[in-house]
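Lab meeting, action items carried over

1. Structure of the three-component assembly. Owner: GW. Status: complete.
Input record:
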Amino acid sequence: CASSGAKKADTKYVARDVDTLYNAAKERLDKGQYKIAAALFDEVERQHPYSAWARRAQLMSAFSYYLARQYQSSIQSAQRFLSIHPGNKDAPYALYLIGVDYYEQIQDVTRDQKITQQALDALGEVVRRYPDTPYAADARLKMDLVRDHLGGKEMEIGRFYERRRDWLAATIRFRKVVDEYQTTTHVPEALMRLTECYLSLGVPEEAKKAAAVLGANYPGSKWYERAYALVQKHPA
Amino acid sequence: CARIRDHKGYVVDATLIDSVQPGIDNKDSVSKTLGRPSFAGQFDKGGAESWYYISRDTRQLAFASPRPVSQMTLAVRFDKAGNVTAVDKSGLEKVVTLSPNGDKTPTLGRDRGFFAELFGNIGRVGGVGAPVGGGTTDNPQ
Amino acid sequence: QDAAPAASAPAAAALPGSGVVRTIAVAGSQRLEPDTVRSYIKLKPGDPYTRETLDQALKDLYATELFADVQIRDDHGALTIQVRENPVINRIVLEGNKRLKEEKIRPEIRLAPRQIFTRSKARADVARIIELYRRQGRFAATVEPKMVQLDQNRVDIVFEINEGAKSKVRQINIIGNQHFSAGELEGEMATKASRFWRIFSSNDSYDPDRLAYDQQKLRQFYLTQGYADFRVISAVAELTPDKRDFIITYVIEEGDRYKFGDIDAESEIRDIKPDTLKALIRIRKGDWYNAKTVEDTVDAITETTGLLGFTPDVRPDFVRDKDKLTMSVTFKVNDAPRVYVEDIAINGNTHTKDKVVRREFRLSEGDAFNSFRVKRSRDRIQSLGYFQEKLEIEQKPGSAPDRVVLEANVEEKSTGELQVSAGFSSLEKFIVDLSIRERNFMGKGQEVRAGVNYSTYSKSIELGFTEPYLMDKNIALGFDVFRRDYNSFNYYGNDRRTTYEQTTTGFQVRAGVPLTEYVSLALRYGLSFDDVSLDKNTFYMVNSQGELVCDPLLAGRYLCDALGKRTTSSVGYSLVFDNLNNRVRPSRGQRVVFSQDVAGLGGSVRYVRSRIDADKYWNVGSGFIFSLGVEGGAILPLQSSPGPGVDAVRLTDRFFLGEPQMRGFAIRGIGPRVLRIPYDADGKPITNRDQMYDDALGGRYYYMSRAELEIPLGSGAREMGLRPSIFLDVGSVFGVKKPLPTATFEDTDGDGKLDPVTRPVRDSSGNPLYLIPEGQTNAGTYTTCVTGQKNDAGTCVGSVPNNAATNSYGPWDEKFLGDTWKPRVSVGFGVNWNSPFGPFRIDIAKALVKRDGDDTKLITFNVGTQF
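Predicted assembly:
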């Protein structure tokens, strides 16, 4: 639609009073034009930094950038809000928004997990500073998923070494999962993989112990059945 | 035709290995002579640990997966106080050849669309943290 | 409108010292909420306070950098924090930056719109901009931050930049150099005195850190010449009187020249025997002392011991003998515990999958550290061509002293290539090649290629796919499907004639398997259907039986024999030895490929074609890369020749040589050919090469060798990826049966000149045509009536005889040339440039030695790689 041509650049210099600007931004947001809404919220903050709306606009701009999937700009807006209004009642929301921004950018396990780590740290911050807010509850849930994702990456590398019959390297990786990612969903598989690795490395007594620990903690899991079958087939 | 020969894991030094005797050595002396193990026993509770030194020579014919040809597994057992109680060596006979199970635990994270993959990397500067959607043809920045 | 702080409260109210805080009020804050301000100080109502705590509160508030001015007033415990907030930035404007563009400066500035303006940040940004200009060599640059007050305590920041002239190095003086001339020493240094011909180079501008680097270069140079006591006493850069340029003066002391004393080696590690080390030492007693050879020996020893899985530190001990001026060296290999790899981390791979990089590692976790394998892993990862140029595998300390973590920090490079190739050659043929190639498809390391090639010579479409590690195993599998239309034509005057047209459709399946670290075997099977046809109406004639048949006079006998459909089903293998350090831009190592293809498993074509192709690269120091390439091939037919004057190997299977392999020659410009040289009006053969009708035949054997020296340019050019090189090409293609002449001309009318041969013109159904003479209606057109013209009913009417329409083919002298193994030689220079669209190459080459009939070409350029 031609009318949406309110280019970001020219809105910068059109001085308008705060209410019209804010409402224009709000309206854009409701219409789903997130990028323009974000730009207009920024305008509110630029032209009227001291109005009560400026604080609100900063948060809304971060939220609009998030909806427009411009995660970096959303993070920057939220961080600017926090740097000026750390004590504000909406601070937990801003911090939570940063965590979710990183969370949305998580790539699949085969690729670099730097962003996943950033997501973990940001969400951790929310839980640490505002433990009893509703945001913390959701942050805790998301943190488990993120830690599970990081565990997934280690498993992916472990399986790669197994496929190439690099048993020692695989063992080291799977032990890392068992040691550092106890709460993730990958531990049963890791223990079963360790059974495979120890058997292939010629250390059957460790394989038996791994299978025993798997049985004790995850008796019903399919991984235990497979580990148990393996240990039966190859007695020490 | 020629096979690719490879050595995996611990580099064996026969004289040093024979020098480790039960009852005499303890954890420090062993780690000085042999160095730290390939890995220690994972589930040893209460200090009665065992250290494993794995050394293996493999042969790989072209695209087949590498087969172990010779193996030396050295297991050094310690008691609670950290003194060596037993040193057992084993070779290829305990090695089991098996192929890893195909199943895997699912992980979250979206796979990028087909076209994002195909054209995702033309002229794009792969800076970490650059928004995922950046530079792909379907939603140009 | 600044809230004047002092107005509302008596400034001199003496603080009563300490007491209990009753209330804390905040005044003068517009943007920040009072409780935000309170959250910055440690005082709470009910706390005791003293002078120190108040000062501390003041310091805390200033530390937040949010306030321009802060005061705390206390009347009996009711504290009032009077603040004046720092202004908020509205816009940042750069003025006066001509040399440095806006986008170069903008990222360096910390201040941003909507942030709080603080003096310290402004000062930091000014310093950063000046640093940018320093690095450009403009030391006279000054930056003046100006603030423009706006309403609501907002401010615009204007950085007024005046860049000043680029301060150059006008003069370099060296004092104390007896054994080497100033010119020689200046050659060693990176900084050059500014001369007019150095307009492009940036290293004649003054740069202090390059000054330090030069001193180190001087020292290095002298150490390699044996002056062990060399010292740079002083290096001073003074401004010239007019304050624009600098004069650099070095004062050096060369000291005496040393020779090598006795050389020895000691090893503390049991497995490494001293005499194995001695074999590596190439220094002999009595040579001039040279620090570089000592370093090289240390590297050699470290590398060989690294091979055995040790990571020793090798240190040379020098014993200096002042009077005999000798320096004896003992290479000491100190004991170091064997180190194991604890973890291999791959970072930065936002597009490439982790396993694509990990499978190139030649060692894995748990293995003994081995510097040679790590170097080999780096070479292999670099050869993928997905990442940045200078890729290194870093070693980080592990969780224990004998553990190491290997880290490959990669930066993704765009691996999608859009190639547009436009060729232009002396016979003004225009080639456009559009192909898209993604070398890292889906980040899985797979290569996908799709190419459309349109040129006046050939039209082709090609699809290719390669998976280097099928199911993570060491087997590479790939296939290509192609359809190619070759048509070769030439110009007879300006009448463009297609000599022949070959359409090939087919596919090829290929697999590659590594035999050892450097040797790999590739197998391939290819099936292709060829259809060679001639342009009917210009080259065919209707023989006596009325069939349309290829006329050897027009098309040449060999083309007529090549007609028809053929299927080629061939299987082949190649043995590849490759230890290049970087397959994309090799600078060390060699690659030798021996391949053989046997065509004859079914299909109508039978031959054995073998080829050898070897390239070797040397890094001859300071960026010069010399490469020598040798190529050769032979094709042996397994079927007999279909007729006299026709070679057993088909035209399309023979080897051709010319552009682009041999620069300086046109496409297929070298080798056996049939040249038809027409006679001009008075019977003498013409000389204009373009007028001659030339058709390359190719040959059964060919050889070629190429020597190329790549010349490094200044850092500026290198960033743009410019790589000029000079080259020498030598080669020839030969060995084809001499074709029979297509026509012989006699002097029928006895006028001493050869006469043309005539061919009746027939229409497509074979009946001869006649030309309507002048004076008749629609004269000059063809009709099939012998006399008169056709009426509406189609019968010939009229008695005026038409004259028979014949094509006359002028006499020409048909020569078979170029079939000699004697080498053609061309020399020239070219520039390689990695343009955003793909590699761009332009070559200017002169054919020094050429044989009769060769077709040379001076300039060829090509955007896009040659497959």
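2. GW to write a short summary for the group page. Key points so far: Chain B has a mean pLDDT of 74. The helical segments of chain B are 14-19, 27-33, 114-119.
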